[in-house]
Amino acid sequence: MNLKKRNTWQLTFIMLCVFVLVIAGCGKNSGNNAVEPTASSNSGENNPATEAPSEAKPITIKVSNWPKPNEEAQVKIYADYVAKMKEKYPLITVDKDEWGYDVSSFLPKAASGELPTVYETFFTEADKIIKANYAADITDIMTKNEFDKALNPDLLKLVQKDGKYYGIPKDGYVMGLMYNVNLFKQAGLVDDKGVPNFPKTYEELAQTAKTIKEKTGKSGFFFPTKNNQGGWMFMNIAWAYGADFEQQVDGKWKAVFNSPEAAEALQYVKDLKWKYDVLPANNLVDVGTDLFQMFGTEQVAMSFGISDWGNAIVQNMKMPKDNLAMSALPTGPKGNATLLGGGLYMFAPDATPEQLDSAFKWLDVKGFSPQTSEESLLGLETQSKTANEQGLIVGPHGLRVWVNEDRIKAEQAILDKYTNVNMDMFNDYMTNGSAGLRPEVPVNAQELYKTLDVAIQAVLTNKNADPKALLEKAAADFQKDYLDKVQ
User: Fold this and answer.
1) How many CB atoms lie under 10 A from the CB of residue 374?
2) Which of 31, 34, 278, 357 could pair with 220 as two cysteines, CB 3.0-4.6 Å apart?
């Protein structure tokens, strides 16, 4: 799941209602505002998109996830992108759309033909979107620009159907632990370099959170419980306790999270509330509103998180960038387990070839390209330089989607140039964060998270709630409502 930016972190990665894509076919996308289905001009050598005809005419594309006015650094970065687009491709107009993907709003927008030309979504949603015909076939333009050769083939499988491509993996994230450094200092839980003492096991996490609560009076740990985010985070703990969620048996999908291991993991979450008393008083909380506000104002010391969220907190809550650290997730009774997720670029199903051409030009100007020329890297250079100047965190990064080594090295060189934080605060995350990587479940992931939210809310609001009984009911409901309907 992508509270990924997401900003992927604007993932905000967020998910409220069950996503039911049962409508085949699609409507006209008036949201693209195309003037004429004609191509843009100024195609040049190494241009990432198709060649434009000699008589090019104006064309308009709409782009989702546009920064909101209060996101000052991102607003400036996007203004630079637009200026560069206008300079290189004067006949292309880029319209902004602040809408970002969430489960409840996507289907109405798609069914009414209002999807932006370029929109972002999560790894978990690709299959449903493709089957419902809400994404354009981009096979020709993708192979022409060699994205198919430069991107991680395992991630490309997410956007393929019958040998055709319907999206582009844009970024990946690995779940880790985020730390409010000041609260750790106040609790005396830092080393001689001021780096937090990272808990290595889930039991250590609970004890660390308890110490912080005792020493500072602030919540030691944040755990989301709504908008599908509780279930999303719970998977990390449950896997580390040896649980699984879905299995395919004789061609049918089965819910298997009514296990002793899953019940033990849910008991751990319950203990954070009733045994250790380290969670916020409010039991109905999410990431984008509650975590960012509480973390940025030093009301909570630790949370699961991804690298992009740090800048959301710094930008929106004015938290000093040096007040954030990250580590790998703790180890559970059955070892390491870390959720792997990420985001995709997808394209409106009725986008014309000329709009797709323009959309790929836009991605190139942003710096999302397999090319390593100075021009292709300019977008990333602009983003890193501006983020540095605006006091945002530059240096840590999520999982790269490229397998093109030249591109990876070129990106790292730019990051090194503008890194502005003590990487000791992030090295554990960067070095060890990928231990025990697990992809999100393949079938109805968002619906599973929603189902688990209910069980998590129950154990945090009722001291007498029975984790085993809750999961028995949740698994039975999930099987009946979703898995039994999978074709």
Assistant:
1) 9
2) 278
Tell me: pLDDT of 22 over 60.
Answer: no
Could you tell me the CATH number of the domain that includes residue 245?
A: 3.40.190.10
306 shares a domain with 196: yes
**Is residue 55 included in any domain, yes or no?**
yes
pTM score: 0.80
DSSP codes of every residue in 298-335: TSB-EEEE-TTHHHHHHHHH---GGGEEEEPPPBBTTB
Q: Same structural domain for residues 374 and 327?
A: no
Tokens representing 13 are 């990665």
Residues 41/91, Cβ–Cβ less than 8 Å: yes
Q: CA end-to-end span of the chain, whole Å?
A: 23
Whether residues 286 and 392 share a domain: the answer is no
Cβ contact 344:158 at 8 Å: yes
> What confidence tens digit (pLDDT) does each residue in 94-111 have?
999 999 998 889 999 999
By the 8 A CB rule, do 438 and 241 touch? no
User: In this predicted structure, what is the pLDDT of residue 371?
Assistant: 87
Closest CA to 342 of 453, 445, 473, 464: 445
Angle at which helix 72-88 crosses helix 309-317, to 10 degrees, equals 110
356 in a domain, yes or no? yes
- Domain hosting 469: range is 176-339+440-485
Q: For residues 256 and 41, which has the higher predicted lDDT (pLDDT)?
A: 256
Q: Residues 384-404: what's their mean pLDDT?
A: 92
Tell me whether residue 16 is in a domain.
Answer: no
Does the pLDDT value for residue 394 go beyond 90?
yes
- The string of DSSP letters for 41-76 reads S---TT-SSPPPPSS---EEEEESSPPPTT-HHHHH
Give the 3-state secondary structure of residue 160.
Answer: strand
**How many angstroms separate the Cα of 54 from the Cα of each of 42, 303, 443?**
10, 55, 47
- Whether 75 is covered by a domain: the verdict is yes
What Cα–Cα distance (Å) separates residue 432 from each residue in 32, 157, 235, 326? 43, 26, 19, 11
Structure confidence by residue, pLDDT tens digits, 440-483: 998 999 999 999 999 999 999 999 999 999 999 999 999 999 99
Question: Based on the domain organization, do 357 and 334 belong to the same domain?
Answer: no
Q: Is the pLDDT of residue 358 over 80?
A: yes
Q: How many CB atoms are closer than 10 A to CB 256?
A: 16
Going by the DSSP 8-state scheme, the letter that residue 441 receives in this structure is: P
Greater model confidence, 55 or 85:
85
In angstroms, the CA 262 to CA 331 distance is 15
